[in-house]
TrEMBL record:
GO molecular function: catalytic activity
EAL domain segment(s): 306-565
The GGDEF domain, residue ranges: 164-297
Protein name, per record: PAS domain S-box-containing protein/diguanylate cyclase (GGDEF) domain-containing protein
Cofactor(s) the protein requires to work: Mg(2+)
Pfam families (UniProt xref): EAL, GGDEF, PAS_9
PAS domain mapped to chain residues: 15-78
Cited CDD domains: EAL (cd01948), GGDEF (cd01949), PAS (cd00130)
Entry-linked InterPro entries: Biofilm_reg_signaling, EAL_dom, EAL_sf, GGDEF_dom, Nucleotide_cyclase, PAS, PAS-like_dom_sf, Rev_trsase/Diguanyl_cyclase
């Protein structure tokens, strides 16, 4: 067919014949008048065999509600599109995406319909596969944490409306780690799959089993979910694991510790219920394993104390001036004894029993999403304290001051506050005295945004230091491209270094590597003269620790420092 000679009708016929989509033309009563070759490829019916057939003969009797609105939609707009379940000639059912458009005569009266459809069974299968992968554990095929959370939330909502009970069982395999370590991960995976199969077979059809992670599983009970019912299920699960598991040529015994938490007795939210079941599981494990335990009132009290501490920390961060204060620990030259800088340390004067350590306080603040706000309060207080020292002519104002910050500041989407460099511009015109310390784990990856922020901070005069070196991962190739001025070797490495030649050699290697990168090394946690001497011997001359000076409030620091100038 010549491109220039062909008529529109010829092009239309060619499109009809060669289209990969099925095309059917019907009369106003939906009887088939014409079908294209793709119709046969999809349905298995030859076009000439189905002339005059009612098109609905190809449709499965069970369809969704939208299917039954076809007639109304065609009368209103002359168009309908939707998903239809159809049947091939061989009896196989398949889904198709169908579009129907009305045909009109010269008087604009409906005279038939053109139906265009494609087989979407492959696409639907791919969607089902992706959904299965998204909601199921790839090793065991069980529900994953995300899908389990959905089931748990729905179960709790239903129970709240109908005053029902819900039970959550937290299962942890006993002594799985030695098996995994000694026989290898392949054997461990085989064992986990067999455990998952036995647990599934021991449960009822409406119970939900999920792999929580590692060798931990969760079970949700919504029926007969009281004390007796939950205990019956726990016993049945333990019985299912009694027979040894065959892994390769070995027969491995395995047991499980099961913690049971009941809604609403042991928690009125999914998070609280999970924590309660977890604590009950540890009770079962501490009792020797291979058993089950309900929530221990004593452990529940510990959870309540933890929640009280979290609440107290939230309240403290909301009014930090009343709840926190800063202590300053000098950093010293080990050769001259001269103070070369300070580190500002956060202290929380809480009245809560079991108050966390300063480090744990920061970790908890980060868990609660409060760490950035707390860090910025600290920076603001340090700026104000240095200004106060300047106003009275104190020599302390001449010392650089270090502040430890969490890595949430490095991610632009982690906080709704100003970027850190903008925050500093608002609070001080001179930041050349400020050192910001970042944990080395924060720089294990190579985010480009981190480099940009560090360069902007450097332009403000801020010095950057790497903290906790020796107690975390660090990407030295990435570090070499960052404007890091100092690195602080963690106290874990320094502790006992005087008696440990291997730690001394490691410290010396770190010092030489940092020196090559042009990074100054500070030893943290120097608690005695022996450690100080060992650190000096490895070429490190800057240190921080209680042997040199303890953390002090600002007034105490002034009294300590002035005579040493």
């Amino acid at each position: 067919m010549s491109e220039h000679a062909a008529s529109p009708a010829a092009w239309s016929l060619a499109a009809f014949e060669h289209s990969h989509a099925g095309i059917v033309i019907t009369d106003p009563e939906q009887r088939i008048l014409w079908a294209n070759p793709a119709f046969e490829k999809i349905t298995g019916h030859a076009p000439h065999d189905v002339i005059g057939w009612d098109i609905h003969a190809f449709h499965h009797p069970e369809q969704d509600d939208d299917y039954h609105h076809q007639r109304h939609a065609l009368a209103q707009s002359g168009h309908w599109q939707g998903e239809v379940l159809c049947q091939r000639r061989n009896g196989e059912h398949y889904p198709e995406l169908l579009t129907i458009d009305s045909l009109y005569d010269e008087h604009h009266q409906p005279c038939g319909y053109v139906r265009i459809f494609v087989d979407i069974s492959t696409m639907k299968a791919a969607q089902s596969h992706l959904q299965l992968k998204a909601n199921h554990d790839p090793l065991t095929g069980l529900a994953n944490r995300s899908l389990f959370d959905d089931h748990l939330q729905r179960a709790l909502h239903h129970a709240q409306r109908h005053a029902d009970e819900v039970a959550l069982l937290f299962i942890d395999l006993d002594r799985f780690k030695p098996i995994n370590d000694s026989l290898g991960h392949g054997a461990g995976d085989t064992l986990l799959k067999q455990v998952a199969r036995r647990l599934s077979q021991a449960l009822r059809s409406d119970d939900v089993l999920a792999r929580f992670g590692g060798d931990e599983f969760l079970v949700l009970l919504q029926h007969e979910a009281g004390v007796d019912g939950a205990q019956t299920v726990a016993l049945r699960l333990q019985e299912a694991l009694e027979a040894p598991f065959k892994v390769g040529d070995r027969r491995l015994p395995i047991s499980a510790s099961i913690g049971i938490a009941l809604f609403p007795r042991d928690g009125d939210s999914a998070e609280e219920l999970l924590r309660s079941a977890d604590s009950a599981m540890y009770s079962a494990k501490h009792a020797g394993g291979g058993g089950h335990a309900f929530v221990d009132p004593l452990l529940s009290q510990q959870l309540q104390r933890q929640l009280a501490i979290e609440l107290a920390l939230r309240e403290a961060v909301a009014d930090p001036d009343s709840a926190f204060h800063l202590a300053y620990q000098p950093q010293c030259d080990l050769v001259s004894g001269r103070v070369i800088g300070l580190e500002a340390l956060l202290r929380w004067h809480s009245t809560q029993p079991g108050q966390p350590s300063p480090r744990d306080c920061i970790l908890l603040a980060r868990k609660l999403g409060l760490a950035v706000r707390l860090d910025r309060w600290v920076i603001g207080e340090v700026i104000a304290q240095r200004r106060a020292w300047q106003d009275i002519g104190s020599a302390l104002a001449e010392l650089p001051i270090a502040v430890n910050i969490v890595d949430d500041h490095l991610r632009g989407d982690a906080t709704d506050r100003l970027p850190l460099d903008h925050f500093l511009r608002q609070h001080t015109s001179d930041a050349s005295w400020l050192t910001l310390e970042i944990a080395c784990d924060s720089l294990a990856d190579e985010p480009e945004s981190t480099q940009h922020l560090f360069r902007r901070l450097q332009r403000l005069g801020v010095s950057l230091a790497l903290d906790e070196l020796g107690d975390g991962h660090v990407n030295f190739a990435y570090l070499s491209r960052l404007p890091i001025r100092q690195a602080k070797v963690n106290g874990v490495l320094i502790k006992g270094i005087a008696q440990d030649p291997r730690s001394q050699a490691l410290l010396g290697g770190i010092q030489r590597l940092l020196e090559t990168l042009g990074v100054e090394c500070i030893a943290v946690g120097v608690e005695n003269e022996e450690s100080a001497s060992a650190v000096r011997h490895q070429g490190i001359h800057l240190a921080q620790g209680n042997h040199l000076a303890k953390p002090m409030a600002a007034d105490e620091l002034s009294a300590w420092y002035n005579p040493r100038r």
